[in-house]
């Protein structure tokens, strides 16, 4: 650690100045060779060997869930944006806490073989992507490991160290045992929790994209003012400062074109940009949606007030310059908030919805409706969901967080009956429209909390063979997990966007008599830290 010690001793006058402002006590035993002024700095946070502005050389031993490299300075953890596992780097300490600190990457002294040059010209400023400096193969491996770590650390689950040659048929093997009436797995002294805890869980390699760029079908671009001019792009990391964007490499090309043209038209007509600090200005966000299969596009102008100056000229210019746009909407949001949409949406011109497909299922997409942003990988994700549900055409399925019915209708192609429940009224209205759009009369949607609606369905004689959950990042409501355990479906399929809450919920289901059969990470958001996961579970005592 001599290099670290040398780096810390270079700023003696600055450290002395800090000591004069913050007198410290003497250092504990074992650190007698350190300078007295450095000793006093460290005493402010006992046991911390570095201080703000120190420059140190560290080895990066891992990466956290935010994509930051994890290194150690004399056992003290430092998080370093842009550093990769296996690298030796020089860093400048930015902030220290009792257990960990943050540092800025200065130089990569020994690079990871997975390091690559980020192709985006604003990658080092924009906060939209976190992993462009990591090869795509490296990203997929890290995302799998992120899932494994959460299952082991939070869920206390036993993940198999290797998948073996027959991993693809494991789910079929368990289901075949169930169909044959094999209940041996649940009959070891009645201790289902122990049985569930001891078996090995297979986590498959992350399913990535053949072309992991231009995959987003929706752009939500904040508009603001920089140097007196209207700009639109993405927020800089850990701030609300807008980085102007000409093109985004993970957005569909047409989305980039519409955003660029709309900004130019707004400047031409003197449209004012929203000022987050004063609450003045008109244009807050530009939201663009594109149907990958249909090519139809929707533009939503989020404004800080009802009136849009030169609205007719603006609409005419958009129609003339952007013929793919078939819907122009306005959403009014006058609240001082970072929430994008307000309560009022109206059509300025064209259709109220655009259409797109996931597989063979057609969906109507309105200005406010939630729709998966990566349709290519959504089809992959839902295909695994159908596989894990084990549908033969005779099953009754409950979709516990159905949204606008994307998973429900995808499952309905293979099930006898599907029931979807969602707490957001507008989403259920969209789901019913989508069911009618596809002529699916065997699908029922209801508004309400899953933990309230599903027990009532059970009282009405609706018995689910499969329950599918796709909760928000906070995971399943505890009462829903209790409801699943009481309803005892043969299979549970859990679709998750947060490995931590997934692991927590799997522990509850495993302790309640279910066995996690297989875990499939899916890369829905290449070049970001986010990973989607779909899990197949089987009831042990069936």
Structure, explained:
- This protein is α/β, with parallel strands linked by helices and 542 residues long.
- Among the domains are: 50-115, Beta Barrel (OB fold (Dihydrolipoamide Acetyltransferase, E2P)), CATH 2.40.50.140; 218-358, OB fold (Dihydrolipoamide Acetyltransferase, E2P) (Beta Barrel); 374-539, Rossmann fold (3-Layer(aba) Sandwich).
- The chain has 14 helices and 23 strands.
- A 9-stranded mixed beta sheet has the order 6-7-22-23-21-20-17-18-19, sandwiched between helices. Strands 10-9-8-11-12-13-14 form a 7-stranded mixed beta sheet, covered by helices on one side.
- Helix 2 packs across helix 3.
Which strand order spans the largest sheet, edge to edge or round the barrel? 6-7-22-23-21-20-17-18-19
**How far apart are the termini?**
59 Å
Shape annotation: globular
Helix content: 25-40%
CATH fold category name of the domain at 374-539: Rossmann fold
Strands, total number: 23
Largest sheet: 9 strands, mixed
> Would you tell me the structural class of the helices and strands?
alpha/beta
**What is the C-alpha radius of gyration, as a whole number of Å?**
27 Å
On the 0 to 100 scale, the average pLDDT is: 87
- Discrete helix count: 14
CATH class identity of the domain at 374-539: Alpha Beta
Assigned CATH architecture of the domain at 374-539: 3-Layer(aba) Sandwich
Secondary structure layout:
Layout: H1 2-9, H2 12-21, H3 36-43, E1 55-63, E2 69-73, E3 76-80, E4 88-96, E5 100-110, H4 136-153, E6 158-159, H5 170-179, H6 192-198, E7 200-203, E8 218-226, E9 229-235, E10 242-244, H7 253-268, E11 283-290, E12 297-303, H8 311-321, E13 325-332, E14 344-350, E15 354-358, E16 361-365, H9 375-389, E17 396-399, H10 406-412, E18 417-422, H11 425-437, E19 443-447, H12 450-459, E20 466-469, H13 478-487, E21 491-496, H14 499-511, E22 514-522, E23 532-539
Parallel strand pairs: 3-5, 6-7, 7-22, 12-13, 17-18, 17-20, 18-19, 20-21
Antiparallel strand pairs: 1-2, 1-4, 2-3, 4-5, 8-9, 8-11, 9-10, 11-12, 13-14, 15-16, 21-23, 22-23
């Amino acid at each position: 650690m001599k290099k670290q010690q040398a780096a810390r001793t270079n700023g003696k006058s600055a450290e002395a100045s800090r000591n004069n402002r913050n007198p410290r006590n003497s250092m504990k035993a074992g650190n007698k060779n350190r300078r007295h002024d450095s000793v006093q700095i460290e005493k402010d946070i006992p046991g911390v060997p570095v201080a703000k502005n120190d420059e140190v050389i560290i080895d990066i031993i891992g990466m956290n869930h935010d994509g930051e490299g994890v290194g150690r300075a004399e056992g003290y953890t430092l998080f370093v944006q842009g550093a990769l596992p296996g690298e030796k780097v020089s860093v400048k300490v930015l902030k220290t806490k009792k257990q960990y600190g943050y540092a800025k990457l200065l130089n990569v002294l020994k690079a990871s073989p997975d390091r690559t040059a980020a192709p985006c010209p604003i990658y080092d400023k924009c906060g939209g992507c976190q992993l462009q400096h990591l090869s795509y193969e490296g990203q997929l491996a890290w995302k799998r490991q992120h899932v494994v770590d959460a299952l082991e650390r939070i869920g206390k689950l036993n993940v198999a160290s290797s998948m073996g040659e027959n991993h693809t048929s494991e789910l079929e093997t368990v289901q075949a045992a169930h169909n044959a009436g094999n209940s041996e797995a649940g009959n070891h002294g009645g201790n289902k929790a122990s049985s569930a805890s001891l078996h090995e869980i297979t986590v498959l390699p992350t399913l990535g994209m053949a072309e992991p760029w231009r995959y987003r079908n929706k752009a939500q671009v904040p508009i603001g003012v920089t140097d007196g001019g209207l700009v639109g792009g993405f927020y800089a990391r850990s701030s609300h400062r807008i980085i102007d964007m000409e093109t985004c490499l993970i957005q569909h090309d047409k989305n980039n074109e519409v955003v660029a043209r709309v900004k130019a038209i707004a400047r031409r007509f003197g449209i004012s940009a929203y000022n987050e600090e004063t609450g003045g200005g008109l244009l807050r966000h530009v939201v663009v949606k594109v149907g990958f299969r249909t090519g139809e596009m929707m533009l939503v102008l989020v404004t800080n007030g009802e009136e849009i100056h030169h609205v007719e000229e603006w609409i005419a210019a958009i129609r003339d310059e952007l013929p793919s746009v078939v819907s122009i909407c306005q959403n009014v949001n006058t609240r001082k908030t970072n929430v994008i949409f307000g309560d009022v949406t109206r059509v300025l011109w064209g259709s109220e919805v655009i259409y797109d497909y996931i597989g063979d299922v057609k969906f109507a997409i309105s200005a406010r409706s939630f729709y998966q942003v990566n349709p290519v990988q959504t089809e992959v994700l839902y295909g695994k969901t159908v596989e894990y549900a084990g549908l033969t055409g005779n099953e009754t399925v409950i979709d516990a967080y159905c949204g606008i019915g994307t998973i429900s209708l995808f499952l309905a192609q293979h099930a006898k009956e599907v029931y979807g429940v969602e707490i957001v009224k507008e989403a259920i209205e969209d789901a019913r429209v989508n069911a009618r759009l596809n002529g699916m009369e065997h699908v029922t949607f209801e508004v309400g909390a899953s933990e309230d609606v599903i027990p009532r369905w059970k009282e009405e004689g609706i018995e689910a063979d499969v329950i599918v959950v796709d909760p928000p990042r906070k995971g399943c409501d505890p009462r829903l997990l209790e409801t699943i355990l009481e309803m005892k479906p043969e299979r549970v399929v859990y679709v998750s966007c947060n490995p931590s809450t997934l692991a927590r919920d799997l522990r509850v289901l495993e302790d309640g008599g279910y066995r996690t059969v297989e875990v499939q990470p899916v890369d829905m958001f290449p070049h970001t830290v986010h990973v989607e996961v779909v899990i197949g579970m089987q009831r042990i005592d069936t």
